[in-house]
Every structure is written in structure tokens, then in C-alpha cells.
Amino acid sequence: MDYYPSDTELDILRVLWDKQPRTVREVHEALSSIKDVGYTTTLKQMQRMLDKGALHRQEDGRAHLYSTSLKAPKVQRSLLSRLTEKAFGGSAMDLVIQALGHGDPTADELDQLEQLIAEKKKQQKDG
Q1: Any idea what the Cα angle at residue 56 is, between residues 46 and 83, rounded to 5°?
Q2: How crowded is residue 91: how many other Cβ atoms within 10 Å of its Cβ?
Q3: Percentage with pLDDT > 70 across the chain
Q4: What is the C-alpha radius of gyration for the chain, rounded to an integer number of angstroms?
Q5: What is the DSSP string of 20-70?
Q6: What phi, psi does 56 have (nearest 5°)?
Q7: Is the pTM of this model over 0.70?
């Protein structure tokens, strides 16, 4: 299942990917450190995500602990595919060129990119 989280949902997922399970209060405190958000807004959003199947909830005494089985790389790939289709007409090359032109990649990141290019070229020759 491809899951395209909203910006707020993605913020919640990032908090949970960092450490889970967490209570709504713990998620809210982590979110509050990066943006202005009310507790009831966090609670309501997490309940919606639970209804969608993006979160799981377990009871621990009086506390409800939330976690997600969604893996960061899978969600990131879904979002990237969607962005590539919608903004770049399906051209991964245009996306990469735009990303590299917009940012300031480090020497290490450029080395990683060169390694990826070399691997892709090898796959083409072998395949």
C-alpha cells in the first residue's frame, strides 16, 4: 500500500521513526520543539492516522502507546515517486538535476552519487 502522508502526518511519523512506541504526550512534546501545535490537534491527527491504519495503539495501564509499521524508506519512495510524476513528468533525471542545482552537496554526497551512477552503469552493462 502506498501511503502519502500529509505534512503533519509526516512530522508524526518522523517522531515515531526516531523512537517508538510513544504516548500522544511524548509525540506532542517532540512536535512542539519544531512547530507550534496544540495537544488536541496532535491527538486528533494521531487518531485519524490510527483509523487509516498508519498507526497502531496498545494499552499500557492507563497510557496508550502508539507505533507505526510504516517504514521510512517505503514512505519516502512513495512520496518521491509521487513528486517525480506530478512535478517532473516522471523524469527522475529532472528531479535529480533540480535537487543538485538547488542544494549545495558535500564532497561525500557527491562521492555517493558517483558511486550510485557507477553501479547503475554496471547494471545496464550486465543486464
Answers
A1: 65
A2: 13
A3: 99
A4: 19
A5: -SB-HHHHHHHHHTTS---HHHHHHHHHHHHHHTS-EEEEETTEEEEE---
A6: -120, 150
A7: yes
Report d(CA 116, CA 122) in Å as an integer. Answer: 10
What are the cell numbers at 7?
Answer: 505534512
Q: Which residues contact 12 (CB under 8 A, 6 or more apart)?
A: 27, 31, 42, 45, 46, 49, 55
Neighbours of 75 (CB within 10 A): 21
Phi-psi region of 90 (alpha: psi -120 to 50; beta: other; left: phi over 0): left
Residue 1 has pLDDT above 70, yes or no: no
Rounded mean pLDDT, 100-104 = 84
Closest residue by Cα to residue 67 from 23, 28, 20, 6: 20
Question: In which region does residue 53 sit, left (phi positive, over 0), alpha (psi from -120 to 50) or beta (all else)?
Answer: left
29 and 88 Cβ atoms separated by less than 8 Å: no
Mean pLDDT rounded to a whole number for the chain:
92
